[in-house]
Amino acid sequence: HLSRGPRMGNSALRAHVETAQKTGVFQLKDRGLTEFPSELQKLTSNLRTIDLSNNKIESLPPMIIGKFTVLKSLSLNNNKLTVLPEELCNLKKLEMLSLNNNHLRELPSTFGQLAALKTLSLSGNELRALPPQLCSLRHLDVVDLSKNQIRSIPDIVGELQVIELNLNQNQISQISVKISCCPRLKVLRLEENCLELSMLPQSILSDSQICLLAVEGNLFEIKKLRELEGYDKYMERFTATKKKFA
């Protein structure tokens, strides 16, 4: 059964399901849904995209969610999820997972099994730490952990394969020097955290791949960054990259 919002009739849902069967895309936003539509079980082998953003969904059904064998993109932004079922991690083809503005405190222990994942958005949740499971994901390019409650970045960060890591608007006051070892990390966003200049590993400037370091809104003046050893090396990478994208 489907708990319907005020503007959602059965026939409307049926029409959506029929369309999705043909297109492989199921999109139902802003409908006040409180549950993941059970009707979607019929489409587990069709759907490549599911977008149920801006609803009131509190949980994902473990029995159904892991069966979407061809699903590439799942968006559940602006819902009321507090926990993700382990079964979600069976989605071997999933490349994009967007869960901004929910109430998640952690990721399932098996999250590292989402082997195809490239983009992960968890902005505006209640994470208190960098999820270590992310280090197993070999194809992860972009991770957005902004607007959480992360206080420090531990040594495991050096194993992350990401190209862009967004940690804006957390409570970070400590960063492991291992962040300089990230093999692919080019963009590091640390705006509006609790960093003292002395807590920013100098090796980020002198000895990493990072060519965009965003640190506005911390406990030091940006111009002080220019006085650090390695700043010239960082600027060389920054300028070279900017030329490439210009």
Could you please describe the fold and organization of this structure?
Pfam families: LRR_4, LRR_8. InterPro entries: Leu-rich_rpt, Leu-rich_rpt_4, Leu-rich_rpt_typical-subtyp, LRR_dom_sf, LRR_domain-containing. With 246 residues, this protein is of the alpha/beta class. It has one domain: Leucine-rich repeat, LRR (right-handed beta-alpha superhelix). Helices cover 17% and strands 13% of the residues. It contains 5 helices and 11 strands, in the order H-E-E-H-E-E-E-E-E-E-E-E-H-E-H-H. The strands form 2 sheets. It has a 9-stranded parallel sheet with strand order 1-2-3-4-5-6-8-10-11. Strands 7-9 form a two-stranded parallel sheet. The longest helix is centred in the last third of the chain and has 15 residues. It is elongated and about 65 Å long. It starts with 9 loop residues before the first helix and ends with a helix.
